[in-house]
Specification:
This protein is mainly alpha-helical. 78% of the residues lie in helices and 0% in strands. The chain has five helices and no strands. It has helices at 2-28, 35-59, 62-67, 72-90, 94-137. Helix 1 runs antiparallel to helix 2 (35-59), helix 1 (2-28) runs parallel beside helix 4 (72-90) and helix 2 runs parallel beside helix 5 (94-137). The termini are far apart.
Length: 156
């Protein structure tokens, strides 16, 4: 439980820290001077935008906002994604860069899927309650019910 809550707060700090880590890590390793570094200067803001998008979709779920805690699936996917970004700051490899992109797509679609499933459940619950109220409203009242007003027509 504390781990899921920790990842809830970590995602706010990961947006500025992890892209900066990529730039600083590449600078310390002296790998990525030239065109590779220029590509990294373009990729880091895109990584921040992707992290903001995933966090926004995750925060759109009412269960996350209410509990201030992510699901286990969210925590696992984000842990793998963040770890791959840290690894990309240490190792300049096309395999690691591909892993970061693949895990970014997994995180995005996982967040979208969970939002759709939770929203569908909430909508079905609301529609079922509307249907329940509507069926009770059209049930015929018992003859002994004092709240029933009967209008009788008399012939004169």
């Amino acid at each position: 439980m504390w781990l899921r809550r920790a990842f809830y707060y970590v995602q706010f700090w990961a947006i500025p820290v992890l892209p900066l880590w990529l730039l600083i890590g590449r600078g310390v390793m002296m790998d990525g001077i030239g065109w590779g570094f220029l590509a990294l200067l373009v990729a880091c803001p895109l990584l921040s935008v992707a992290m903001i998008a995933v966090m926004g979709i995750t925060m759109a779920r009412k269960s996350v906002r209410r509990a201030r805690m992510l699901s286990w699936l969210d925590a696992g996917v984000l842990a793998a994604w963040y770890l791959s970004i840290v690894l990309a700051g240490l190792i300049a490899s096309p395999i690691v860069a591909t892993l970061v992109v693949v895990l970014m797509l997994v995180a995005f679609w996982s967040a979208v899927w969970q939002l759709v499933v939770e929203t569908r459940q909430r909508v079905n619950t609301v529609l079922a309650s509307f249907e329940n109220v509507a069926t009770r409203a059209y049930e015929s009242p018992s003859p002994d019910d004092p709240n029933v007003i009967r209008i009788r027509r008399t012939l004169s």
